C-alpha cells in the first residue's frame, strides 16, 4: 500500500496547482474497487498535506481542495454526513487560521465543476454546496454567500431542472446584494441582475424583467460614461428593456431604449447590436402605420442576421418582412417570407440557441399568425381555418406554460419573502431580549449606585437613558423594515390575484357561453381557494364551481392547479361525463401532490354540471357538495357524492356517480361553496344551510343580478363587522 501512497503523493506534487489533480484524485478515490484501502490512503495523504501546509503557505489552497474531495467522497460512498461535515469544519479552521476566508471560498467550487463536467452526482454536489454555504454564513463573507447561492441556482436549475428552487437561490442572492451592495464584487452583481432579468422575461413577467435589467443598465451606463471595460454588451441590455416595453405595447417608452442601444453599439463597433434594435424599431413603425419607413429597418435586421448566421434572428426577420408585405398588399412576397421563416425554423431548430422552449413556440406562433392572414387574403379559406386553429392551439399552450412558470415564480418569491420576514421577526425578538437584559442590568446598577453617590447615579442614568433611546430607535427601525417586508408580501399577493384572474373565465366568454347568470365571488384574503370554470366543448357547456383546501395564496395555488387539471381532462383528454371527470381529477390531484407518499391532505369539494341545450339535458356530478335546481315553483336540492377530491381518503377506492335531468324552460341552477353558509354573525351563529336555502327560495323569481345583490347585502349585514372566515362563491345560471 505504501507504493500506492507514494505514487499518489508524487502525482499530487506534480499537479498541485493545476485543475488536472481534481480529476486524478477524484478518479482514484471514487473508482478504486477497494474502498477500505481508499479510506486509508486518503487519510495518510491528508496528514502529509497538512504537514506540508504548515511550512508552505502555497500548499494551503490544495489542502483545502483535497479536504473538500474527502467530504464529497464520504457523502457519496459512506452516506456519512457527520464525517463529511468534520472535513468541512477542518477546511474552515485552516482557512480562518490563514485569515483567507473570503479569498479561498472559490476553492470549494472546484470539485462541483469537475463533477458537473462529467454530469454526475448532482444531488450530492448540491448537499456539499449547502453544507459549505451554512459554514460561510458564520464568517459574514457576503461575496462568498452570493457566489454559493448563485452556484446552487445553477445546479438546481440548469442541471437538475428544479426551476422554483433555482429562483429561490437567485432571490436570496439578490437580497444579499441589496443589503451588502458595497461588499459584493460588481461582476457578481452584473451577472445576477442579468440572469434575473432573463428569468422573468422568459415567464412573461415584463415588469420584473425591467426592474432587474434596469438596475443593470444603471451600472453599465456609469461604466460606459467613464469608458471603463466591461464584459456585458451594454447595447444588449438597452435593447432588452426596449423589448419589454414593446411587449406591453408601450411603444413610446420602448423607442428611447432602442435608439440608445444603436448609439452605444456604434460606439463599441458592434454591428450586430446596431441592426437588432433597428428591427425592433421597424416593428413599432409598422404598428403605428409608418409602413414604408419600416422596410429599411427590417432589411438591415435580416441582412445582419444572415451575416452572423443567427438563425433565430433570421426566422424573426423573415416573419417581420412577411408582416410588412401583408401591410403593403404584396401577398406573393408575404407568402415567400412566411414560408422561408417556417422552413428555416424547422431545419435549424437544433442550431437556434434559445434556452427556453416557450420562445421557440412564440416564433412559430408569429409565423402561423402571418400565414393565416395570407391564406385569408388570398381566398384560401380552408387553409386559413386550419392554420388559425394551429395558431389558437399553440397560443393556448404558450399561455399555459407561461402561467405555470409565473405560478412557480410567485411561489418562490412568496417563500423567500416569508423566510426573510421570519428571520427579521427572529432578529427583532433577539433585539427585544437584549433590550430587556440591558434594562434589567441598568436597574440593578442604578440601585447600587444610588446607595453610594447620588451625583454618579444621575450621570449613569443619563447615559443609560441615551442607550435606551438608541435601542428604542433600533426597534423602530426594525418595525419599519418589517412594514416594508409586509408591503412586499402584499405586492406579491396582489400579483397572485392578477395571475389567478387569468385562470378564471373572462366576462366575454361567460356572456357568450351562459347569456344570463350571476357570480358572487368574495375572496377572504384578496386571492381565493374557490374557483369557477366555464367552457364550451362541441354541443356541451361545462359549468363548474370548486372549493379548494385553504384560502389566501395557498388556496389560490390549489385553485390554479385545479383549473389546469380540468383543462387537461375536459379539453385535452376529451373526458366529458361528470363522474369520469371527478374520477380523473381525483387521481390527478393525488398524483400531482404526491399524496400516496407524503402527509399532504389538500383537496377540494366541487360541483359539475354539463348542459346540452339542444336536448335540454343536464348531467350533474359532484364531490361533497349539493346543488339547488329551481324549476317553475319548486326548489330541489340535489346531493352529490360524499367523497371529496384528493384529501384524506386517498387509500380507499372512490366511485363517483352522476345524475341526469331533462329541464323545463327557464330552469335555474345554483352552485356554491360552503363559504357563504359558514359565515358567523356577532352572536357567533352561522348563516347555515337552512337559512341559505330559504334566502334562495324567497328571491328565485327575481332577476339574477338583483339576486346577486340581495345575497351580497345579506351576508355583509349578517356578519355585522365580524371578519370573513372563508372564501365565498355563489353562481346562478338560467338554462
From TrEMBL:
Residues 510-735 form the PPM-type phosphatase domain. The chain crosses the membrane at residues 435-456. It comes from the Bacteria. Gene3D superfamilies: PPM-type phosphatase domain (3.60.40.10), Tetratricopeptide repeat domain (1.25.40.10). The keyword Zinc does not apply. Pfam families: SpoIIE (PF07228), TPR_1 (PF00515). This is Stage II sporulation protein E (SpoIIE). It comes from Raineya orbicola. The lineage of its organism: Bacteria, Pseudomonadati, Bacteroidota, Cytophagia, Cytophagales.
